[in-house]
User: Fold this.
Amino acid sequence: MTDTTAGDLARSAHKVLEPFHTLVYFVPEGGERYEAAGVGGSMRAYFASRSAPFGVTSAEVVIATFYNFAPDRVRRAIPSVWETTTPERVLAARLDVVDAALRRMLPEELDSDAMAEAAALARTACDAADVVGRPLYAAHAGLPWPEPDHLQLWHATTLLREHRGDGHIAALVLAGLSGAEAAVTYVATGHSAMNEELQRSTRGYTLEEWQSVKNTLRARGLLNEDGSLTDAGGQLRARVEAQTDEAAAAPYEHLGADKTQRLIELVRPWARSITEQIFG
Assistant:
């Protein structure tokens, strides 16, 4: 398998597996369960649940590993969230959220042979994911594998997502894009599921900060006046995405093209159903 083919396969798998992981951030089951665990507010729950594998850590660690969030947004949640709860309680609540959501959204699939097969394939892919240089993935890789199969599949998709994300951050650093610049240029690609205003607000940037970043990118020749990418900006983002795909390829090379394609085929209808139920 060539590097290019491996990268393409990694991207194809990511597109299908991503919704299975990210459901945890959007389903209504989250609110009451995180509140019961001592965390109020959706963004505090997001930062707490995703960083909980680190244990009680500093805002700086979360800023570094989450990358494209405004530092002030992170500091409003970390480390103060750990004054009212613990990482262990939040991790337990997170699995409870996933379990409840999947039982609601995919009730006929959870005990199926297909779910067991998908979980086994995804877990095998994770065997080849290296922790070196991948801090957020490494933290998640240190967690125990949950049961039953649908939680194993969710955990595997989470590991693969964070493994890819750490590689993506490395590519952004090499490209000389700050977290804010990464967010702005990603919106400018037209591939973001969020519009510009939603991307800006969820990442915690003020309108003035967002416009300042745009001006900096224009001065660098990466952004046009209308907010679209210049040719140079498009080429830079394309290099970042190609490097991200290459850095994410090892698990799928280990699994093999045929088994990766089988995993994609198994998860695709579930991912579509989850996306439709969350976003309509």
